[in-house]
From TrEMBL:
Name of the molecule in the record: Formamidopyrimidine-DNA glycosylase
Keyword terms: DNA damage, DNA repair, DNA-binding, Glycosidase, Hydrolase, Lyase, Metal-binding, Multifunctional enzyme, Zinc, Zinc-finger
Biological processes annotated in GO: base-excision repair; response to oxidative stress
Entry's EC annotation: 3.2.2.23, 4.2.99.18
Reaction(s) this enzyme catalyzes, per UniProt: 2'-deoxyribonucleotide-(2'-deoxyribose 5'-phosphate)-2'-deoxyribonucleotide-DNA = a 3'-end 2'-deoxyribonucleotide-(2,3-dehydro-2,3-deoxyribose 5'-phosphate)-DNA + a 5'-end 5'-phospho-2'-deoxyribonucleoside-DNA + H(+); Hydrolysis of DNA containing ring-opened 7-methylguanine residues, releasing 2,6-diamino-4-hydroxy-5-(N-methyl)formamidopyrimidine
Role summary: Involved in base excision repair of DNA damaged by oxidation or by mutagenic agents. Acts as DNA glycosylase that recognizes and removes damaged bases. Has a preference for oxidized purines, such as 7,8-dihydro-8-oxoguanine (8-oxoG). Has AP (apurinic/apyrimidinic) lyase activity and introduces nicks in the DNA strand. Cleaves the DNA backbone by beta-delta elimination to generate a single-strand break at the site of the removed base with both 3'- and 5'-phosphates.
Species per Swiss-Prot/TrEMBL record: Streptomyces olivoverticillatus
Domain FPG-type residues, every copy: 254-288
Encoding gene, per UniProt annotation: mutM
Record keyword Cell membrane present: no
Record note on cofactor: Binds 1 zinc ion per subunit.
Positions of the Formamidopyrimidine-DNA glycosylase catalytic domain: 2-125
Positions annotated as active site in the UniProt record: P2, E3, K61, R278
Cofactor section: Zn(2+)
Family: Belongs to the FPG family.
Amino acid sequence: MPELPEVEVVRAGIERWVSGRTVAAVEVLHPRAVRRHLAGPDDFAARLAGQRLGVARRRGKYLWLPVEPAAGGVPERAVLAHLGMSGQLLVQPQGSPDEKHLRVRVRFADAAATELRFVDQRTFGGLSLHETVADDPDGLPDVIAHIARDPVDPAFDDDAFHAALRRRRTTIKRALLDQSLISGVGNIYADEALWRTRLHYDRPTATLTGPRTAELLTHIREVLNEALAAGGTSFDSLYVNVNGESGYFDRSLDAYGREDEPCRRCGTPIRRRPWMNRSSYFCPRCQRPPRATA
DNA sequence: AAAATCTCCTGTCAGC
DNA sequence: TGCTGACAGGAGATTT
């Protein structure tokens, strides 16, 4: 459920409360939470101890903390975090009761009486330590080099995105969820952006014109920025910022989760369709299905 | 080789 | 009351 706006809210909280601090000790309470760290939980904890963490960065739904190099220069390692479906990064007072699904605890070597906690009910998310892409000033972890830039990144290439859509033999919502084409968009904001653009989720990407792709990108950016301003979207208490608070963008959703409720443009009841082991919400009048799909 | 499908995981809720 | 199954769904792994 955390998509770009939710992860960005968390990133900002981590930057404020964690960046610049030095790790004292790491406690892994569930090995699955560090499974992407192939050398194992003990190695993860040992390599992190004593390291000073730099400014928190984000690409799409991934966020990371560069490990500050001892001798200056660009970072060579970074702590990568992905929230998966239900992951939370919380900054909590030391000694406050452990959360039920606490997976990793990071203590710091300073006087601030807070610690970083990774809490994850479904353990789809996790933490890991990686080498960075050579000479990357932000310390991009090598394992996410294949993740495309996200649409709020100034370096996102709109024309290249359109060319990629034309080249692909797939449908638009699949493409929006493909993080190697555009990152940060998940099921909720894909449905919202498609509704705003009046595009059906099964529209073949090869049929999109330049102006139509441009419109879609505009709406994607708008919905992401509006959600960010609202502190993110939350349907339950699973998505929270580092202080445990939920955003309120769910009140502003036009399509997602609104089955049988009237379309805010035309009044037609919003429909839900099973789609790729999840759901697609759309207005059957504003978002007409493509003519020639099988 | 690109595209589609499978799979991991735990909790909630509807229905009986 | 308690069981069952559907659903939530990101993204790497596997299959087509």
